[in-house]
Amino acid sequence: MSWAGRARAVVAARPVTVVITLVILALALATGPMHGPRRPLGVWLGTGPGPLVDGHWWTPLTSVLFTNDIVELIVALVLTIVLVGAAEHLMGTWRTLVAFVATPIVGISAGIGLQLLASDTGEMWATSVRHLVVLDVFTALGGTIMTASAFAGALWRRRIRVLTVLVAVVFLLYSGLPSDVYRLVAVFAGLGLGVLLRPTAKRTGWVRSSHHEIRVLLASVVAVTAVGPVIGLLTRSRYGLLAPIALLFTSEAPDKGTLLERCQAFAVTRQCVHDLAVERISGVGPVLVSVLPLLVLLVAAYGLLRGSRFALWLAVAVNVLLAVLSAFYFGILPLAGVTPRISLTPRYWEITAILALSSLLPLAIAVVLVVLRRHFPVRPASRAVQRYILIVVAAGLALSFFYIAVGYLQKDTGFTRPLDLSDLVNDVLERFIPVTFLRREPVQYLPTTPFATFVYDNVGTVFWLVAVLAAIPVLRGSGSRRGETDAVRVREAIERGGGDAISFMATWPGNDYWFDPVDGHAIAYRVIGRVAITTGGPFGAPPPHDRSVDRFARFCDDNGWTPVFYSVDAAFEGLFREMGWSTMVVAEEAVIDPQNWSTTGKKWQDVRSSINRAERAGIRAEWTTFAALPLSQVVQLSDISEQWVAEKDLPEMGFTLGGLDELRDPAVRLMLAVDEEGRIEGVTSWLPTFRDGVVVGWTLDFMRRRPGSINGVMEFLIAEAAIRMRDDGIEFMSLSAAPLAHTAVEPEDAERSGMDRTLGFLSSSLEPVYGFRSLLRFKRKFQPAQRPMIMAYPDPVALPAIGVALIRAYLPQLSVRQAAALARGRG
């Protein structure tokens, strides 16, 4: 296709996006892209209380078509193409145009109304910004993408709404301009407009998220709130909480020799406070001390994406620190003998409220992280965490001592006044605190010599650099030597073979490992309460496994745990009987021989029909890995998975059931059903079984289909996988086992009847949500061999604790409300 043809295709597909982009660009070029429209044109086109009161009724619309400078223009053009383009893709041309026009009109009109109402009552912020004239493209962009969220799938609907509201709130907190208020109101107007345009998208309550998506959202929240204060470095606003740092870009630092003389305790002027703020942040060191704690949060956000529990507690610690510092240095948290910095009289209630909010935001984030900590199962070795804490504490103490020592050596000549030891001790903690929190603190002294200045400015910088750099190896795993070694040993044992079809699940997060020191077997397990539940049987060496089972049981007993072998092959039943243990069937594994795969015969009619239906629809099968997928397909997989999770009334299950995160392992294979337009209609994942480093079998794990996809897409995928495995010479293909579902009939046993009833009730309760019994019936279409899988336990008295441990293993996020619903049989 020619360039002109491509241009026509883009215009035809996204006419509103193209027109709006060109209008913004043309108006910027006409009025001056470097500076935006100047007065009086800017006042005539911009909006605010003044223009609207003067009768400029058109300004809520014209103000969103202009920018203030070249940087804003570039950002606006990029975001217009991305956000309006996405909105037009989701909800079509006319809805996008309606949203782009209606949401800023509502947001700006309501925002100005609030301003006028507040300024009439003498409210400080509204009065101080009433004269400002606003030109802001982003108000319309925020409202438009928020409207479009109603037309997105469960995954992107939640992401768009959370991130859009969060960004709007962060700008309001850290910039505080009228445009930030208008934008936030427009965003909520877009939320309401989306519901009006698509009423079926309205859902009550919070749509459930997978573990992966919760990690993505929390990491995004931490990252956005960490980047938010940087707005104070870039904005020209003086209404944000970080305004003193912005002074660096507009003012020169005053002379140190006269500064303190002019700023006495009872002669503090506005200019004096300005000069003190500038002096505190003059130089690279103080700026880095303010920025590096935010970098710690960005590093923690990276770890949150990986499910790191250490990253979670790191983010909690930094947010709590910021909250406490805000509360103390802004006078919200008075201490004994300390005079509050902000008067709590009615005259200053607005300042107190704003400063309280600056403390509550990081505190709220910390609380949310703690509440949702179970979604972060990846734990480093305790030694790695202890090492990190030791490094940070040692660095803090060493740098504090160094600062005091240097200050004492130069106490007579290095500062604006002679010092004693108590002066240095009282000041040392403030060397590590971001200067944002110190802008209302009186300055007792300042350095005058180059060396004293360097130490004064940079001990905090070095400390926060250590905190950042020491965290990186812990988050990446190299800081946990034992954990890394165990992971390598488990992977090597799995590749040696000797295990069962679910042995590969031992590599999943949440497992601990026991390695037999005698014959090289390994067992994956997790301790819940005082019950140690295995993930399958021993692996890493060929049978017999008798001695390893016995030694693992002794290991558990030595630690005060009740050992439970869960989902192991029924061939172990004789061994457990000899040990005096009880056993019961908990699932049935469906196994297919790919070398004898065929779909001929009457029993295969349903499978053949599904294959033919998929082929007629132009659907093809792709055997691939997660790492090989393009970004567009990764997004589709996330969307499909989130829609599946959102439909459930219970949390995403774990233990022997993998989710989206488990697809990322390079050893796992995916079989995708892709239509002619490249859209994924369904996906299955396959876990390898090794023998001497060679894959001899594949086990089905992850199964998802796009809502509205053709019937039979899963049958098509499994049939295509069987053909692939037949051609590759694979020995067996396991369709895995549906948890808590089987057809085996066991003789009645008084010891087992209680557990049978417990697991049977759990299975029945979960059936409407997860359909394990339906899944068992589905697998019978492929005429597999059914292999019972058993659970073995030593003490029937422990059955109640075992039942609770199994529920917590599969549903660690189960809330009290959900547990009550489950108990009532409503799942």
TrEMBL record:
PANTHER family: PHOSPHATIDYLGLYCEROL LYSYLTRANSFERASE
Topology class, membrane: Multi-pass membrane protein
Subcellular location field: Cell membrane
Pfam families listed in its UniProt record: LPG_synthase_C
Cellular component annotations (GO), alphabetically ordered: plasma membrane
Major localization class: membrane
Phosphatidylglycerol lysyltransferase C-terminal domain span: 492-793
Single GO MF annotation: aminoacyltransferase activity
InterPro entries: Acyl_CoA_acyltransferase (IPR016181), LPG_synthase_C (IPR024320), PG_lysyltransferase (IPR051211), Rhomboid-like_sf (IPR035952)
Keyword match Membrane: yes
Chain ranges passing through the membrane: 12-31, 70-90, 97-117, 129-153, 160-177, 183-201, 213-234, 284-305, 312-336, 348-372, 388-409, 454-475
BP GO annotations: phospholipid homeostasis
Highest taxon above the source species: Bacteria
Alphabetical keyword list: Cell membrane, Membrane, Transmembrane, Transmembrane helix
Protein name listed in UniProt: Membrane protein
